[in-house]
Amino acid sequence: MSSADLNEIAGALRTARLNRAPISPPSKSYPSLDVKGAFEIQKITVQNAISKDNDRLVGYKLGNIAKVMQDAFGLDQPDYGFLLASLFVYQGTKISLDNLIKPYVELEPAFVLKSRLRGPNITVADVINAVDYAIPAVEIIDSRVKDWAIKLEDTLADNGSTGAVILGGTPRRLSDLDLSNTKGTLHFNGREIMTGNTGNILGNPLSATAWLVNRLAEFDVEFLPGQVILPGSCLRAMPMEEAGRWSCTFEGWGTVEFDVVSHASSKL
């Protein structure tokens, strides 16, 4: 694909995000779009955010690593994307549905790095040595593609369908957690609606992180100290369709809570 086509897709996705008006899948409008081109679109998006919006690159995400997530969105491979500072909102914040298109809630651990990671050939041991601490996190995913009718190329071009990220307040050292077997639960307005386990994240979210580092090495991406890594959801994402309170808990670790409103008085 030409650079003009890549910039055109990036611009269309940016407009869709700003106007909360989804577009047709880029892979349909541009049949030659492949994974490499989609990642180039991600890079254009980040460059524009930094240069035009005074944003900042703060980490990376992995999505749809669990089979339950791939099944839910009709994918057979994980997606991945950049994390920008503007995506992060505070726990307890009111999040307006008017600022999103068709959002879903995910619960996952987040890792904050103390040293660099660069693939290929990164092992789980390398990841353990590089992580400073883990913290409960909520990712609100949101697609700029109509009706989530996405192929891998579409969600990659859309920066992994990221909408917002909320970090909890209970950081823990890895040695204090059993990340291969920690139960996660979503409650909405006090009602349990979904459960999962960190073991769903490629057996262990540290393994998923190694996978992500090695995958992005193909695009010359290096993970740096202080950056946040989201390795993927431990449960099937739940639609965020109405006002109310979400309480998202890792058993024995911590809870992330936030309120959803259906008017534009609270902005992301």
What's the arrangement of secondary structure elements?
Elements: H1 3-19, H2 26-29, H3 35-53, E1 57-63, H4 67-73, E2 79-84, E3 88-89, E4 94-96, E5 104-113, H5 124-130, E6 131-141, H6 152-157, E7 162-167, E8 183-188, E9 191-197, H7 205-217, E10 228-230, E11 238-239, E12 244-250, E13 254-261
Parallel strand pairs: 1-10, 3-7, 4-13
Antiparallel strand pairs: 1-2, 5-6, 5-10, 5-11, 6-7, 8-9, 8-12, 12-13
Helix pairs in contact: 1-3, 5-7
Instruction: Please name the fourth-level CATH homologous superfamily.
Output: Fumarylacetoacetase-like, C-terminal domain
CATH class: Alpha Beta
Shape: globular
Q: Which structural class is indicated by helix and strand composition?
A: alpha+beta
Unreliable residue runs: none
The total count of helices amounts to 7
Query: Roughly what fraction of the amino acids lie in strands?
Result: 25-35%
Number of strands: 13
Order of helices and strands: HHHEHEEEEHEHEEEHEEEE
Give the mean pLDDT. 93
Give an overview in words:
The two termini are 34 Å apart. The strands form two sheets. Strands 1, 2, 3, 5, 6, 7, 10 and 11 form an eight-stranded mixed sheet that branches. Strands 4-13-12-8-9 form a five-stranded mixed sheet, with no helix packed on it. The longest helix is centred in the N-terminal third of the chain and has 19 residues, at 35-53. The protein contains seven helices and 13 strands. It has a single domain, classed as Fumarylacetoacetase-like, C-terminal domain (Fumarylacetoacetate hydrolase, domain 2, Alpha-Beta Complex), CATH 3.90.850.10. The protein has 268 residues and is an alpha+beta fold. The model has no long low-confidence stretch (mean pLDDT 93). The protein has helices at 3-19, 26-29, 35-53, 67-73, 124-130, 152-157, 205-217; strands spanning 57-63, 79-84, 88-89, 94-96, 104-113, 131-141, 162-167, 183-188, 191-197, 228-230, 238-239, 244-250, 254-261.
